[in-house]
Amino acid sequence: LAVDSELYDKRGLGYNGSVLPQFTYMIIKGLEKYNQWELARDCAIRHLYFILDSAHQNGEHRQTLWEAYQPQNEGKAIWPDKPDWPRAQYLGFSGLATVAMMIENVVGLSVSLPRKTVDWIIPNLEIMGIENMSLKRNMVTILSNKSGRGWEIHMESEKLYYFTINVIGKKKKTLPIPSGKCSMLIDKI
Fold it and tell me: Could you point out which of 31, 126, 163, 181 has its C-alpha 20 to 30 Å from the C-alpha of 13?
């Protein structure tokens, strides 16, 4: 709901302003469809920090992941008519959308199991990656770091897959990655 709508409520009040992670995920996917990779990544990072800041409300030691959040303040959305909403530890949508944003938008990995491909869109070179990501019956590790020779990608796989690296604005290349361990210098691609 738009902020300038007369039904908007800054506490959330159900669907009158609440931030629901699954809808944020859909908006970010729409940005990607129109090649707005950097904006999508920035929105995902902001969303993840917002959730992280809201996880430790009132100095509690137990982290809570909520079904919906207030749009302008930290913490869960408030709907006085429905005290059981939003649900705590609601991992059906909130957990899946949050983990997917971390893998797809912050790290930049996109996986297609039918095509046996992993695409890595890298907006800027940083130390990042993922370990032991399951691609059906294939465990894959992809990590980037800076060595004395330059930026390097280390990969480990149990089976063959195709890896596309896309350093935005610089280079894009697809390579077959054999089973076992291998590494490549980004400058040599």
Answer: 31
In this prediction, residue 174 carries a pLDDT of: 93
Residues near 133 by beta carbon (within 8 Å), at least 6 away in sequence: 103, 109, 111, 139, 140, 141, 142
Q: Kindly list the distances between the CA atom of residue 77 and the CA atoms of 8, 12, 47, 49, in Å, as whole numbers in the listed order.
A: 13, 5, 15, 16
Quote the pTM value.
Answer: 0.82
Q: Which residues contact 171 (CB under 8 A, 6 or more apart)?
A: 165, 186, 189
What's the CA gap between 108 and 17, in Å, rounded?
29
79 vs 26: CA distance, rounded Å: 23
Neighbours of 163 (CB within 10 A): 20
Helical residues (DSSP H) of the chain, grouped into ranges = 21-33, 37-54, 96-101
Over residues 70-97, the pLDDT tens digits come to 998 888 999 999 999 999 888 888 889 9
Residues 106, 91: Cα–Cα separation, whole Å? 20
Cβ 146 vs Cβ 110: under 8 Å: no
